[in-house]
Specification:
The protein is of the alpha+beta class. It has three domains: about 170 residues, Beta-Lactamase, CATH 3.30.450.20; about 70 residues; about 160 residues, Histidine kinase-like ATPase, C-terminal domain (Heat Shock Protein 90, 2-Layer Sandwich), CATH 3.30.565.10. About 55% of the residues lie in helices and about 15% in strands. The strands form three sheets. A five-stranded antiparallel beta sheet has the order 2-1-5-4-3. A hairpin with a 4-residue loop joins strand 1 and strand 2. Helix 2 packs antiparallel against helix 5 and helix 8 crosses helix 9. The radius of gyration is 55 Å and the shape is rod-shaped.
Amino acid sequence: MTAARLLRRLSRAGLRWRMILTYLGILVAALAVVGVFQYIALQSFLRGELAGSLRTEARYALQSSGPPGAALDNPDGLVRSASSPAVRAALYDTSLNRLALSPPGPRAAAWAVPDLALLAGKAGQRAPAPYQVMGSSTGDVLGVAVSVGPKGSPVGFLVLEGSLAPLDSTLLGDLIIFCVAAFLSLLLAGTVTALFTTRVLRRLERVSEAAGAVAAGDLNRRASVTGTDELATLGTAFDHMVDRLQREIVRQQESEDAMRRFLADASHELRTPLTALRGNLDLLRRGAFTDTGDLATALSDMHQTVVRMSRLVQDLLTLTRLEHGSDLVLTPIEVEPVLHEVARAGQLAHDRTITVEVSGKLRVVSDSDALHRVFLNLIDNAAKYSPDDTPIQLRAHTDGQRVAIDVVDQGVGIPTEEQALIFQRFYRRDKMRSPRSTGVGLGLSICQALVGHLGGSIAVRSESGNGCTFIISLPAAHHANQVAG
């Protein structure tokens, strides 16, 4: 298999196998480099040690032969004394002629003719070589040369050759040990790498699985990768992205739902007044109203119908904006001036006595316009469902953290079973209880939405026939500041 095909197959493998095989490939290359370097270094060291040992034996033999010049008097004796079972010796003169050769020892090592020009040098032409490796009929041998005679003026050269078989056996044993150790190291490294890679990629698989689930529509799925490394950062970034995507989708869905409700509610509520308006217009177009009184009545009905439709559309738009997002500005507001202001407006609109009771100097965190609209809607609702000669009360008190403002009337009250329904859109109580009711059933829904955006709550307490009390609870200004601080 060529290297190109191997690389193509590796590129098609999974990330886990690519990481494991890449790491093992690098480790194999590193072990190969270390093995070659160690083999060459050990071989050089062992040969250097053998060369040094042979020189020591040659010098010992020369010292045992007597004075430096007497070595050539008995060449056969010199080479015999320098030889051993694993070493053969030969004596050469300065003309590189062999004078004597020791017989082979018990190991019968064959003699290899050395390159004396390399080993000993000739007439100072080149520096002596430390040793020379030569081949013989019985295996490779290593030869060294030692000068015979006075220093600086040799009379000959004593050459010793030793077998490299023991060194080769040592190198082979070392190579086998290294290969076994390298194999075990690769096996251990591969196992550890597989376990570590699996553990690391498991978190990446969690991100991948979560991405697949999100792509399939499961927006509640998260990777939930823990840690402080790059994979944890990736998982956290993915979760934040899905959170933001989910919020955007939910917001878009809510906006679409609000628009559908707006269209459905508007079409449902506008059907009746539009039918009545169309009928009156058809009669006017045909000239059916010949009497001035009938014409004035028809025009008055048409005007009331248009006013009611305008109020309906405005209320629906207000609810839609509140559901889509509020642009209210919350600031500390003193309660008593607001209540007196809405009381005066309510008295002018309904010709009704409205009293204000405030226990102390109370301030709430609210939006002034929204607060006015809430209380005006509640006053309008109380005026519709209570007798003309009964007062409406606005009472404010606090428990230290929140301010409660009660809107109390003495009207027909609300049965317990209806109290959970009155804040629903277009819910209107039986008109028999209030002939003056001309609303569309959105006032209390708007109040609840506004109070919710102000950080408060609205509740009702009532019994049928005993009037009712709407309770608005808002954050006290000083408490909100303490929490913010």
